[in-house]
Design a protein that fits this description.
Blueprint (H helix, E strand, L loop, with lengths): L3 H28 L3 H37 L5 H4 L3 H28 L3 H6 L4 H4 L4
Helix pairs in contact: 2-4
Length: 132
């Protein structure tokens, strides 16, 4: 049948979601915190992970642009102007990551969650691989 790859994918996503939910539930029980707050932290950590991956790609792109400018002997302020948009995007991503980390800290303080407990909160794997 032609649906087999989709069925396997659907099962894999379902399984990952179930494992994520179970892990979060167990952690909530262990540290006595609300699952909703832990899920919000997990979501923020997932978004940070995704943005960090995008940022790495932009930094690589920037490096390639700079190398190209160097090879063309055009590493001048005018030539470097072609890199400014990529730099702005990288800086924007860093700001976005910072805001998400601040949000995690706020929840952490409200719920009296330690850094170690935050580190135990899993990243939502089914969401971290989806392009948004």
């Amino acid at each position: 049948m032609e649906n087999k790859p989709f069925d396997k994918f659907s099962q894999a996503v379902s399984s990952a979601a179930q494992k994520f939910g179970e892990s979060l539930g167990q952690l909530a029980q262990k540290i006595g915190k609300e699952t909703e707050k832990l899920a919000r932290i997990a979501s923020l950590k997932t978004e940070i992970f995704r943005i960090q991956n995008e940022r790495r790609g932009k930094v690589e792109l920037l490096g390639e642009k700079v190398i190209k400018l160097y090879k063309e002997n055009n590493l001048t302020p005018e030539g470097f102007e072609s890199c400014t948009e990529t730099i702005r995007q990288i800086l924007g991503m860093e700001e976005e990551i910072s805001k998400k980390n601040i949000e995690i800290k706020k929840i952490q303080e409200e719920e009296k969650i330690t850094d170690e407990e935050v580190a135990e909160i899993p990243i939502d794997e089914k969401s971290s691989t989806v392009d948004k």
